[in-house]
């Protein structure tokens, strides 16, 4: 739109009139706002193409610096309408264009105030009655203290920002510190918050299977610390099983006794065999060995063929005991490899062999066809996959990076992370507290379920009061039902996942935008007609 559509040259305004000054404001503001809006829309389009619609909304479209120029342009159009008074026949096209744009501005204002946009994830044959909004919520739930209590729950809204944001909210003893709207988990080594350092080992290895072409390369992290719940002590590499043990067990592989039993103490960090300490092995059950060890005036009873932990009289494991046991004869039938920090052990030609690993030096095991490299080993720290902010990237409407949202919070001086992928539970003051990060959701006036995914689109079964039926939705064919519009965002059809993600617009029914577009289009036609008529009359 040029200035001639806002202030007609045929209308002369007195220099003493307030419209005279406003007309200059209209010209200046229009000249400034249009380039700004154009630049923001280009930036929003690029951001959406790279990082998705959510990233573009957080960065551009849902921010005040995008809404403010729009409302300023809306205001200048209203002023320009009054500046073009009194009514002139030759300015009928200009009036219609301005009136149409005013109606579009009213439609945008109504949608901004009353409309809602969100998304729905539809797994197969599951009835969904809610949609997720863009707002992120951290829910903190306290368990009930007694049978008559219902517990306590609070929801804390998180900022709608595109980048990492510092938080200063708190609830009771919980202090929120950081919110990451887009992140990826990165391996980090941190100090534990519970049991003292130096008790439980953790290691990182590079394992290469040379039996296959191309070679299979794995980066594996093991940990025995109870806080490292994301990491295991067992890795299955069919037909080989890799077991992770404390490094203090390694010396006992060089002095295995006739019983082929190894015991170790995780506190004193020593290992021993029953033969070394003359511990008798009994068989109270036919074929099942039993032994008891006295430590600190307390007996620890073991069935080594059943459990690595000492057992109670009811055969329940005592996991608080510092003693552990392992019967090696249980591992002689198949292929097993034991990793113990800077040592490893395996069976070769019917005998157990212990070898050493050097940091960052590749160690080859010929008969297992494996190359193993020790990359990191510690008993002071524990491994953790901690969220780290990344710029989101997408391909074919699906996020490749930045899929994880995360909140960091402090409790009793210790830092914790909760993500949208999994809630976490902590015990605070002898009360179980659950932290959940998810989108705010609202109910919609109909129910949707996914029936089938095909190359043509997704078949949806929609039920609403007084009506139900099957409908096909695709990227180019949205569905509209009395104020609710569904757009297919992405669909996944495969063996591991078969689902559809819909974008949902929930807004009141309005015809202002259609009337506004028609009026603006008609006004544009009349404007050019009267302009050409004026030129022909001037020529005669």
Task: Describe it.
- With 540 residues, the chain is α+β, with helices and mostly antiparallel strands.
- It has 4 domains: 3-115 and 513-539, no CATH class; 116-131 and 441-506; 133-193 and 383-440, no CATH class; 203-370, no CATH class.
- 21% of the residues lie in helices and 42% in strands.
- Strands 1, 2, 3, 27, 28, 29, 30, 31, 32 and 33 form a 10-stranded antiparallel β-sheet that branches. Strands 4, 5, 6, 22, 25 and 26 form a 6-stranded antiparallel β-sheet that branches. A 5-stranded mixed β-sheet has the order 9-10-17-18-19, with no helix packed on it.
- Strand 11 and strand 12 (270-272) form a beta hairpin.
- The relative contact order is 0.16.
- The model is unreliable at 1-16 (pLDDT under 50).
Question: Topology, please?
Answer:
Blueprint: H1 18-51, H2 53-61, H3 64-83, H4 92-114, E1 116-122, E2 128-142, E3 152-157, E4 165-166, E5 170-171, E6 174-190, E7 202-209, E8 216-223, E9 234-237, E10 240-244, E11 261-265, E12 270-272, E13 282-285, E14 288-295, E15 298-302, E16 323-327, E17 335-340, E18 343-348, E19 351-356, E20 363-365, E21 370-378, E22 382-389, E23 393-395, E24 398-401, E25 404-411, E26 414-419, E27 424-428, E28 431-454, E29 457-464, E30 467-473, E31 479-481, E32 484-493, E33 498-506, H5 512-539
Helix pairs in contact: 1-2, 1-3, 3-4, 4-5
Helix content: 10-25%
Strand content: 35-45%
Give the rounded overall mean pLDDT. Answer: 84
Please give the count of helices.
Answer: 5
Radius of gyration: 35 Å
Distance between the termini: 29 Å
Oligomeric state of the chains in view: single chain
Low-confidence stretches: 1-16
The beta-strand count equals 33
The computed structural class is alpha+beta
What summary fits the major beta sheet? 10 strands, antiparallel
Which shape, going by the Cα principal axes? elongated
């Amino acid at each position: 739109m040029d200035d001639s559509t806002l202030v007609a040259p045929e209308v002369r305004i007195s220099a003493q009139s307030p419209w005279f000054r406003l007309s200059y404001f209209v010209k200046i503001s229009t000249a400034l706002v249009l380039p700004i809006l154009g630049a923001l829309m280009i930036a929003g389009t690029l951001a959406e193409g790279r990082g998705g619609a959510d990233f573009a909304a957080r960065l551009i479209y849902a921010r005040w610096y995008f809404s403010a120029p729009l409302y300023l342009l809306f205001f200048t159009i209203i002023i320009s309408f009054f500046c073009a008074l009194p009514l002139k026949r030759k300015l009928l096209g200009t009036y219609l264009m301005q009136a149409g744009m005013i109606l579009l501005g009213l439609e945008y204002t109504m949608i901004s105030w009353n409309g809602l946009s969100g998304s729905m994830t539809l797994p197969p044959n599951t009835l969904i009655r809610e949609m997720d909004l863009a707002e992120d919520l951290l829910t903190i739930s306290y368990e009930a203290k007694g049978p008559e209590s219902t517990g306590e729950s609070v929801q804390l809204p998180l900022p709608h920002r595109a980048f990492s944001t510092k938080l200063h909210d708190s609830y009771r003893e919980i202090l929120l510190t950081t919110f990451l709207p887009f992140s990826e988990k990165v391996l980090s080594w941190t100090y534990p918050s519970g049991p003292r350092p130096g008790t439980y080992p953790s290691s990182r290895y590079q394992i290469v299977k040379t039996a296959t072409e191309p070679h299979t390369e794995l980066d594996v992290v093991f940990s025995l610390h109870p806080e490292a719940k994301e990491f295991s002590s067992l890795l299955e590499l069919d037909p080989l099983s890799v077991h992770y043990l404390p490094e203090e067990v390694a010396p006992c592989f060089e002095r295995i006794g006739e019983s082929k039993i190894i015991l170790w103490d995780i506190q004193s960090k020593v290992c021993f065999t029953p033969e070394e300490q003359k511990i008798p092995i009994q068989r109270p059950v036919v074929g099942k060995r039993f032994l008891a060890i006295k430590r600190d005036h307390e007996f620890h009873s073991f069935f080594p063929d059943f459990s690595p932990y000492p057992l109670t009289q009811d055969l329940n494991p005592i996991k608080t005991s510092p003693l552990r046991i392992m019967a090696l004869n249980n591992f002689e039938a198949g292929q097993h490899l034991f990793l113990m920090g800077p040592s490893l052990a395996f069976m070769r030609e019917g005998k157990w062999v212990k070898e050493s690993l050097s940091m960052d030096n590749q160690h080859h095991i010929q008969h297992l066809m494996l190359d193993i490299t020790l990359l990191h080993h510690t008993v002071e720290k524990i491994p953790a996959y901690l969220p780290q902010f990344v710029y989101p990237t997408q391909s074919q409407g699906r996020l490749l990076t930045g899929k994880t949202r995360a909140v960091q919070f402090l409790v009793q001086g210790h830092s914790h992370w909760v993500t949208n992928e999994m809630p976490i539970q902590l015990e605070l003051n002898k009360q179980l507290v659950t932290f959940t990060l998810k989108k705010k959701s609202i109910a919609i006036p109909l129910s949707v379920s996914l029936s089938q995914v095909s190359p043509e689109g997704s078949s949806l079964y929609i039920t609403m009061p007084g009506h139900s039926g099957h409908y096909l939705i695709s990227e180019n064919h949205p569905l509209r039902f009395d104020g609710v519009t569904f757009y297919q965002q992405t669909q996944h059809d495969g063996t591991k996942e078969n689902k559809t993600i819909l974008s949902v617009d929930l807004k009141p029914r309005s015809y202002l935008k259609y009337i506004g577009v028609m009026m603006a289009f008609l006004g544009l036609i009349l404007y050019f007609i009267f302009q050409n008529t004026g030129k022909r009359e001037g020529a005669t």
